[in-house]
Amino acid sequence: MPTTPSPPEPRSVVRTLLRLWPYVRPVRARLFTAASIAIVASCIGLVIPLVLKWMVDGPIADRDPAGVWLGALYLLLLGLAEALLFGLRRWLVARPLAHVEAEMRAALYRHLQRLPVAFHDRWPSGQLLSRATTDLMLLRMFLAFPLTFLLVNGVTILVGVIIMLVQDWTLGLVILVPAVPVLITCVVFEKRYSGAARLAQDQVGDLTTVVEESVLGVRIIKGFGRHRSQARAFRELSGKLRGTELHKARLLATILGVIVTLPELAIGAALVLGAVRVADGSLSAGTLVAFLSTALALRWPVDSIGFLLAMSQEAATATARYFEVMDEEPESRATTGGRAAGAARAGAAARAAGTLGRHDRPRRGGDGRDGLVFHEVAFRYPDAPSGTAPVLDRIDLHIRPGESLALVGATGSGKTTLTALVPRLHEVTSGRITLDGRDITEMPREELRSRVAVAFEEPTLFSASVGENVLMGGGSGEADLERALAVAQADFAHALPQGVDTQVGEQGLSLSGGQRQRLALARAVVGRPDFLVLDDPLSALDVHTEAAVEAALRRVLADTTALIVAHRPSTVLLADRVALLSGGRITAVGTHHELLRDNPEYAHLMSGAPAGRQEDER
Length: 618
Ligand SMILES: Nc1ncnc2c1ncn2[C@@H]1O[C@H](COP(=O)(O)OP(=O)(O)OP(=O)(O)O)[C@@H](O)[C@H]1O
Hints:
CATH superfamily of the largest domain: ABC transporter type 1, transmembrane domain
Bound molecules: adenosine-5'-triphosphate
Shape: elongated
Strand content: 5-15%
CATH class of the largest domain: Mainly Alpha
Number of helices: 26
Distance between the termini: 22 Å
Helix content: 55-70%
């Protein structure tokens, strides 16, 4: 099972968050405008204490009711302006930030499609899902709130402190005393919280993997009565996550405690000192009111620093996790063959449209087309422990144009691995594979995959209609679809409630295993590929259906170069020749009857075939 890859060396929060700039750049004007509006709104809040001072020392001291009403009107207008500006800020950022989140998600999805199969073998799906959902949501929240408010609150605190110092510098210094311990607490908090935030987000990924596996494997879990042990495993993981979240909450509570308590004590001290000075006449009552109102207006900007820092830390972790995937190297792009790709696409499209007959196809045989050839191919999985033997070693195999070759070997001998090398789902470790004389690594993948169609033993269907699933393999319309369904003996599709428009449900699980296999086979043949790679595609069929599929396939295979992994003699008989894979090497090639006669290992595999399959069919 893939395990969570360990995180790389941590970078500073700011350096990590700066990586978001390419995505934020298109909406920077709105974000800056919104931040400026928020700063103005916040500073308007700081004007209110000055109006209060004017009212206390002026109209209230002079017992002037008209002046008091005027002051109240000013306060009302200032409050309204503050509220309207904050509302405007929110309206300005909502749409662009949803756009940033959508763009980042789309980029991640595109990148995931381009990453090699080896990457997906390595990464648990839950880790990828949590990056595409929870992490991106955290980033949107960071851009909408902490990013702006760390700036806005910073400016507000600065302006507020200046106003207080101007009102009365001794009281201002009293208020400033807690600044040093608060700053030290913030630095310590940031360090500790970053580790906890990373752990929590990774644990969310692990939990997502467990949920996904349990949902997809619900039949096995129920079938084996494993729901209790699965629930226990889930509880353990969610218990760990709960522990990490509580640790985060404790850290947050500590910083909030310091950030709230120390400034409150300073305000209390300033109140006492100010009251004494008003009593002895060295300070006006209005100044004290203004001073304390400003200090109280700064409470929220100061108090919020704790959770704004926490949210920024979580956003930095989310950014790091996002770019861990985005920094992975996608499948290498071939640099040659662009023109050939165009020609191949045009050819495939024309064939699909039925405008090219078989004789119009590029010629095989004497003109350089020599089918599918493995030249000294060796392969080892990138994550295999060092020192282990390669799965495939010095494979030399020639499948002639129009020929079909069955690949037979014991379980685990590397048949699936070998078939995966042809469409470059894995890259050969050494040696090369050629299609009609051209090295597959020199072909653009698009061309390669338009010429080679695959069907695996485990048929994967998508949440789409039957027709859409089949036409994913190429082809251009109803005629192709009908022909492919006929070849794969998948006429059952017409009997479904909405015929070929019937939705097959998640992973096609609303269909039987044999039905899914037949649709996967139809998908492989619908584009009339030049090369077919079939990994035991008939294993789930009953003998009668298998015979009918084989008869239809034989007609298709008459023109197509095919490599077919086979376990049963009936499937082997589809092929012109058979190759035996043993110990990572091709140890024999010949017709079924020749190998049956001359090769004891092959004879043993074929005679034990029905028994061998039982294990799979159970
Ligand atoms: N992603 C992977 N990473 C590492 N090793 C792998 C991976 N996939 C398969 N293997 C190993 O490669 C070997 C060949 O596996 P492969 O699936 O190709 O065998 P097979 O002949 O197709 O088996 P079967 O007949 O059971 O389908 C096995 O030892 C398997 O454990």
